[in-house]
Amino acid sequence: MTRRAQLLAALVTVMLMTSLAAWAQDPPIAASPADIVYPPLEFEPPSPEESRTELPGGIPCFVVEDHSVPVATLGLSFRAGSFDDPAGKEGLASVAMQLLRMGGTQSMSPDELASELERLAIDVGASASSRTLTVSLSCLSEDLPRAVEILAEMIRSPRVDEGRLELLKAQTLEGLRHRLDSPNQVAQLYAEQILYRGHPAARIVTAESVAAITVDDIRDFLSSALDPDSLVVDMGGDVSRDRVAELLAPLLQGWEPTGFQPAAIPSDLDPLVPGVYVIDVASNQAVIIATQPGMSRHDPLYEPEFYALRVANMVLGGGFSSRLTQRIRVQEGLAYVVGAQGNSNVGYPGQQAMVALVDAQSAARACQIMAEELTAISTTPPSPEETRRAKQGLFGTWVGFFESPSSIARDYAALLLDEMPLDFYITWYEKTEQPEPEVVMEVVARRAPASEIRWVIAGPADMLTAEPGEGPSLADLGPVTVIRPGDPTGPVALPE
Amino acid sequence: MRAACPTRKWAALIGILACLTAPAWAWTLDVEETTLSNGMQVMVVERHHVPLVSCQLWVKAGSANERPGATGLAHFHEHLMFKGTQAIGTTDYAAEAALMERQDALAERLSAEMDKDVRADLELIGELREEILQLEQEQREYVVPSHLDAIYADAGADGLNAGTSYDLTMYTVTVPANRLELWMWLESDRFSSPVFREFYSERQVIQEERKQTLEDDPMGPYNELLDMVTFPECTYGREIIGTMRDISMLTRSDAYSFFAEHYVPNNMALVLVGDVEAEDVFAMAECYFGRIARVSDPEPNRSRQRRDIGERRVRLTAQAQPRVDIRYITDTFGSPDDAVLDVIGGILSGESGRLYKRLVIDEKIALGASAMAHGRMVSGSFNLSAVPAQRDGHAAVETVLVDELRRLASEPVAAEELEKVKKQARAGLLQMVRGNDMLATMMGYYWVYTGDWRELMATVDRIAAVTADDIQEVARRYFVDSNRTVGWLEAEEVAE
């Protein structure tokens, strides 16, 4: 060590000791969190309009650049989905998209396609939701031009390999055989069936419907449903907005509209009547989904009422300090998982639900607490403190929407495809902050009353329906119907 | 009134501020790091695109560090650390302490009675349990429920959570950037003097969690058995959550002992990624976390799993998808062989990988297959798994899996296969580091296992250096019959 360094070290030591001595007498930290003074926080989310551009043919595209990591993403979303599956061929959209991913192209066999994608570490996904077909890719930005070329071939000239279709059918059938293996899966499937009875959202894939899908069905579906007229593109990461049109030329050039018309979606539901539906499965545990119709994103009162329901769900089951978690998990130790949540769908109602996974013997007690708390919040406004916390607790969630450039570009594309306002995420927190406690109460009372709950409980029916010696019984909640699941690969039979 | 927590000027005194980059790549990761005066590591990556910061605290202690008979303690901390401190979660800590002392005395009696096993007085056990829970109920008068969660919610934080693994436990939350000091306050408070209130009711919650995640999961008992048989001499053979009996016997005193031994600053690290200045983080960390006294390093896990102790087999029938698993005991995380085993996993896996091509595409005897290296602190394993296409197809699938490993030992792999895996390793890392949370997680993970975040990047370099000869040598060393455990999960017949 040089003399100068020794001197510096000694000085540093003396200063450090002085500082530590001062800290020991008068800790330089806040006495409590309330004493901390926070600097102001300013955040201007990236505007969807600024990231929007138009590709040849008038195709809308959202680009959010981020050059910090040499990875780029591309997403293509089309207005078509499983709601467009023909009757008797449920699963077509999903199988078609999977085959698009793994079925090869006119110039590449399935094996060659897989090898080329993996050689370049290009990650491609293709999937179908109820109303949207999505193809996405992620790769090193240096490989993006080649990735687009491959994607163009996959979409514009898919091979639809018969051998791969048979493999997909076998994989799908194996999945169907095990879709009722756990009480959680059973409860989710039956909650959807009971709520969306007769609606396209309740159509499910069966062994029979998968077996009926042919290569020609898939060719016809892909050639019509992948319609550039409904296409919205998103790009994110290490990609230049100025180069997007040139980059996507191999995909877009000469792509003619197909005139695909998505199926109309009924906006109303006809669920089974409120009551208790016990789905009999062999298990020590019971999975409770207290479900009822939620809101459609196109409901004229979506704003502000969905936001009021969101605040209610936070108060009821949005975190450790929420009412259901406190009573069911913390105070009574009945469950590990407890919560309340609501989702909205585009064009038809979503689900409003409370959920708990409990020991089967405690199911009635957990349901009783859920009913009490839902009734309480629909008759007495949540406290100002609960309401404020519920709203502020969503601030980080809101800013988090904008953390990933790829995700926000995709979210903007989805808004456009769903005919939602493009400032949906920009104003999301502002709208969340608005509902007052009285409004929260009034909306819950009207939109999600306890009397409308369908108590879907997957667990051992004999234990769940036994007369209790003391304490609550499921029969206290309404008429009890026991459903015994049949063949997991077949359709779901519900009581009339 | 509070004294200001010194910020930037402290950094010059207490931190060895370094902007370090990893070699050999065009892309670098800029990490600033320091070691606090008590030995705690602090790592920061500044990212300023959204005003959020992912804050993680890592502890080098997990389920593998538990002593026999007290399994589940590491995971129990994942719950207990949210119960508050002497300052958070209470209106009268002194009154609480008196009640907790009485609970603990009863719990000792309860454990002693339960230890009698078949000779235990069940009535007394029931009474003691009831009495303990009654005292916890009395304690609630002084408890502010889920206070920590509520403070974070008020601050707009998101994703408050924790996770436990074999060799580590991590605590995470994302806070708005202006709430950095709040995070410092709350975390340094709970990691210096936590209060494990509501211990016995939380024990019930964990028992419910075990039922839900392990016992009622169709795969749970199979995985538990397979782990036990794969690692009979090593603490990795136990499930992270612990055995049901051990959980039911754990006391608050056991938990405090584990905390005192492992939750020491010289065994912990802070990782922050987001909209912060590293200098501010270092200064605040010294101020807040620096007050936790350094003590001796915890006793390391001395268990090891020997290789080549003879083939072991597990066979179970359950209502689950059939599987074949083969596991070989290998070396530790970050060892020279670990990178080679990573490459072998890449060569075998994926749609263009050897297992999928042969088992699924060519021979059509499986519906899926994969392989992966799992290096850990004291022993590792190389795991292969496949889903037989036929219910009785386990033997044929097992034969091919073993044959593919023999091929690796006897024939050099093709240059293209090697290049593919090397590129995938690089791309995979870049994909993962895009998000703040994931980057923080990767850095923390590598710190736990290697003591240095740089290994995150160096691993890719080591993979890049792997040769065909290395693969043959490593395959010959590990993939021998006497070093493996084979598992068959056979599916129960379901009605179709």
Give an account of the 3D structure.
The complex is a heterodimer of chains A (496) and B (496). With 496 residues, chain A is an alpha/beta fold. Chain A has 2 domains: 48-252, 2-Layer Sandwich (Cytochrome Bc1 Complex, Chain A, domain 1); 275-483, Metalloenzyme, LuxS/M16 peptidase-like (Cytochrome Bc1 Complex, Chain A, domain 1, 2-Layer Sandwich), CATH 3.30.830.10. In chain A, 42% of the residues lie in helices and 18% in strands. Chain A contains 19 helices and 14 strands. Chain A has helices at 3-25, 48-51, 92-102, 110-119, 144-156, 162-177, 183-195, 207-211, 215-225, 244-252, 302-317, 323-331, 363-379, 384-392, 395-400, 405-417, 428-433, 437-447, 461-465, and strands at residues 52-55, 59-65, 71-79, 123-128, 132-140, 232-237, 275-280, 285-293, 295-296, 335-342, 344-345, 351-359, 454-459, 480-483. In chain A, strands 1-2-6-3-5-4 form a 6-stranded mixed β-sheet, with helices on both faces. A 6-stranded mixed β-sheet of chain A has the order 10-12-8-13-7-14, sandwiched between helices. A two-stranded parallel ribbon of chain A has the order 9-11. In chain A, a hairpin with a 3-residue loop joins strand 4 (123-128) and strand 5. Chain A is globular, with a radius of gyration of 27 Å. Chain A starts with a helix and ends in a 13-residue tail after the last strand. In chain A, 49% of the residues are buried. Chain B folds into 2 domains: 8-90 and 143-291, Metalloenzyme, LuxS/M16 peptidase-like (Cytochrome Bc1 Complex, Chain A, domain 1), CATH 3.30.830.10; 312-491, 2-Layer Sandwich (Cytochrome Bc1 Complex, Chain A, domain 1). Helix content of chain B is 45%, strand content 17%. In chain B, helix 1 crosses helix 11 (278-288), helix 2 (73-80) crosses helix 10 (252-262) and helix 6 (180-190) runs parallel beside helix 11. Residues 1-24 of chain B have low confidence and may be disordered. At the A-B interface, helix 1, helix 4, strand 5, helix 6 and helix 12 of A face helix 1, helix 5, strand 5, strand 6 and helix 6 of B.
